[in-house]
Amino acid sequence: xxxxxxxxxxxxxxxxxxxxxxxxxxxxxxxxxxxxxxxxxxxxxxxxxxxxxxxxxxxxxxxxxxxxxxxxxxxxxxxxxxxxxxxxxxxxxxxxxxxxxxxxxxxxxxxxxxxxxxxxxxxxxxxxxxxxxxxxxxxxxxxxxxxxxxxxxxxxxxxxx
Amino acid sequence: xxxxxxxxxxxxxxxxxxxxxxxxxxxxxxxxxxxxxxxxxxxxxxxxxxxxxxxxxxxxxxxxxxxxxxxxxxxxxxxxxxxxxxxxxxxxxxxxxxxxxxxxxxxxxxxxxxxxxxxxxxxxxxxxxxxxxxxxxxxxxxxxxxxxxxxxxxxxxxxxx
DNA sequence: GTAATTCCTTTCCAGATCGAACTATATCAC
DNA sequence: GTGATATAGTTCGATCTGGAAAGGAATTAC
Lengths: 161, 161
Known about the structure:
The structure is a homodimer.
Chain A: H1 15-39, H2 45-53, E1 59-60, H3 61-67, H4 72-84, E2 88-92, E3 100-104, H5 106-126, H6 132-150
Antiparallel strand pairs in A: 1-3, 2-3
Helix pairs in contact in A: 2-4, 3-4
The structure holds a DNA duplex (30 and 30 nucleotides).
């Protein structure tokens, strides 16, 4: 605003920044809705996610954290809470004693069976403002963006900074 | 992949769910990158966001929380930390004594001036995997989705649940 | 004016998150 | 085997987050 001469100040305005800002906002709103939905089930969003990744046979904690793109240390506490609610349990892996398998209990499976379809339906319903073709388009763009983000990112612009 | 006979289990598979899952993942990765970028500047992501919304003249805390789509109560602590770092300060609003204005200090403005352009450049660079047209397309889709999310959401599907 | 209501902010608590340090186990090098 | 390295999970401290409750202040109803 106070820069004279060239108009480089227009704060953000690049389509990339706008897209990213919107992505954050959409994510935030979806999260708020999900939190609200799951509240009546006495589950938090991360608790529900872990429940979705756990199986009766057991899944290593680090496999879950990898899929959730978070650190192992996050899950310790969340799993503790799920255990206290009776939805999962920890079992040592006989093959690798470092591993603790997260096992869905019968109660957990039942809970999941009851609320997962409804939750998915709600998520889909909230995207009704997009046509079927637009949903596909969005998914493809995000897929491409996600793939691009996995690469090490060759620094090139502003090499001096 | 391993599903035999009837595919009733296909777990998610709807384009909506896939799109939403990708949106979460992209957001998560972008956030990780941002956190890493700002770390060398001794700033967290939310601290940086507040810095971006604050002005020298002062902005009501609730205006910032509205823009950040978060609760007022979140910002109290973050602002406290920014104050202890000397980047903002609180000033009472003479017009409305309930309001506390968040004011960018000279040090805060200087910090922002130094890191904001670089940060924006990095965000843009991370979206290089999309063409210019695709970025526009993504922005438009997210804009439409965001607008749709603001509406009260007329419950229609699964009305009995 | 007073009372009721609404609004702005802070405080408190539970939960989640990251990052670093630590323990235990596994694997590799030799 | 021993030692170095890597991996799995936990613990801890700092930060962020939402939600509820409380305080002070503005606004409205009367």
